[in-house]
Amino acid sequence: MRFPEIYFGSPDGQMLPFLNEREFRRGLVLSVLFQGDLVIPDVFFFDSPYLRRFILHERRSPFSTWVKSGMIVPAFRDSGDKSFMQCFERITASNIVGVPEEAADIAKLLDKACLLSREARTVYWPKERFDLGYKTVTTQAMMGELAVDDPRLIELWARTENLRIECFNDALANSPDSGLRRGELYKSIARYYKLSETAADDIRQLMDGASGPEDHADLRYILKWTNYCYHYNQGKMLGLMPSLQSLDALDVSFSRQLNRSGVNSDPCNEAIEQSFDFYSLDHLLSVPAGKLVEVRNSDKGVLYFSALQTYQANPNDETGGQLRERLTQYADSIRLTVVTSGASVVNPDLLLTLILPTNPASNPAAILTRELAEFFLGKIADYTLLRSVSKYTTMFLRIAPKSAVRTLLRPLGRSEVIKTSITQDQMRLINGTSETIRSDVSYRDS
């Protein structure tokens, strides 16, 4: 089966002011597991501090395994680039700002992972100019009439009218060859707030130009949405839909406005919503990377992604019910993999093994041991006997700690409630992760 491909733009350095490192890591891991294969532009592998640390310094980082398995797909800008190192050398030769020396270590590591791999893949940027597409998307989404009936967005649209019109027109006038460049848009905003143009190199400095709390909040949204337009356009040029990071409720409303600026002008609003217990990021990353690849490529993973694509192609009660069932089964298989292969000892479910002699007469302590074990386990947890082995009674017990015990364990290893919202056109990730337009599953902390 070919898994869905999603443009993943959150490693973009211009997104740093809008999401913290935990949100980035969580969005990356859950997107790989539930969204599909992630296509990432070449320069993002090197200039994102969050992604660099995840690749080079995360304990038991699964990233190189995901690249080797084709779950992470680089989008190389130059068709002559046949490796990460060739790509890195071209980027450094072009004097792109923000690429540190340790980025070479990333190129070496990922090239080594891809060596002799049959699953590793690359895609290449199209020949069409991205700045022309960015001009079209941004003009329609940020300058056109609102197509979303959200009172808060309507009020913000009115307050920022002068900012949007003046800055976008100025940026269009200063961008070469009738296109629109994001850097020129940042420079226009710097001039609007009477800041030095060098402030455009770091949009956190642009936010300092705001005159008060409300103006600061409005400017923050405008800057974030110019990035969403950027990712939407790059994904669209690659034939993909983007995963948008760090959305709150107002961002979700804008994402609907953004989606209406593209080819899909009539999105389906009916959503499948479902919640289930899941493991924290630390629990998931305690599993060997190969095991997570295996579970995603297993029958339950394939059936989930197949049901997802079927529902989005033909949303109705029957395909929706099938998707709910497949999602639950797939999530359960990931949970079981964490239980059996994860390194953490404070998972919400634990496996406990008791080895007791089968003949109590030969060892009277066996009865007492069994009774004591059952007594104490009953006080702190619900448990289920999974199987026994002859000669010695090897009791594999799945332990589900009771709520009070979970509360005590929470500071050591937190579990999460995953809330999913699946539509034909949009995937919601509110309060901390991401949203994919015309894709699949959303996640929200409990």
Structure notes:
The protein has three domains: about 1-125 and about 240-250 and about 280-345 and about 415-445, no CATH class; about 125-230, no CATH class; about 350-410. With about 450 residues, it is an alpha/beta fold. The relative contact order is 0.12. It has helices spanning about 20-35, 45, 50-55, 65-70, 85-95, 105-115, 130-145, 150-160, 160-175, 180-190, 205, 215-235, 250-260, 280-285, 290-295, 300-315, 315-340, 365-380, 405-410, and strands at about 5-10, 35-40, 70-75, 125, 240-245, 270-280, 350-355, 380-385, 390-400, 415-420, 425, 435. It contains 19 helices and twelve strands. Helix 7 runs antiparallel to helix 9 (about 160-175). Mean pLDDT is about 80; it is low at about 260-270, about 345-370, about 380-415 and about 425-445. It is about 50% helix and about 15% strand. The strands form three sheets. The protein has a seven-stranded mixed beta sheet with strand order 4-3-2-1-5-12-11, with helices on both faces. Helix 1 links the parallel strand 1 (about 5-10) and strand 2. The chain starts with a strand and ends in a 9-residue tail after the last strand.
Class derived from helix and strand content: alpha/beta
Helical coverage, percent range: 40-55%
Task: Report the β-strand fraction as a percent range.
Answer: 5-15%
Report the C-alpha radius of gyration, rounded.
25 Å
Distance between the termini: 33 Å
Main-sheet strand order equals: 4-3-2-1-5-12-11
- Tell me the domain tally: 3
- How would you sum up the major sheet? 7 strands, mixed
**Count, helices:** 19
Task: Count every beta strand, where a strand is a DSSP E run of 2 or more residues.
Answer: 12
Overall form: globular
Low-confidence region ranges: 262-269, 344-368, 379-414, 426-446
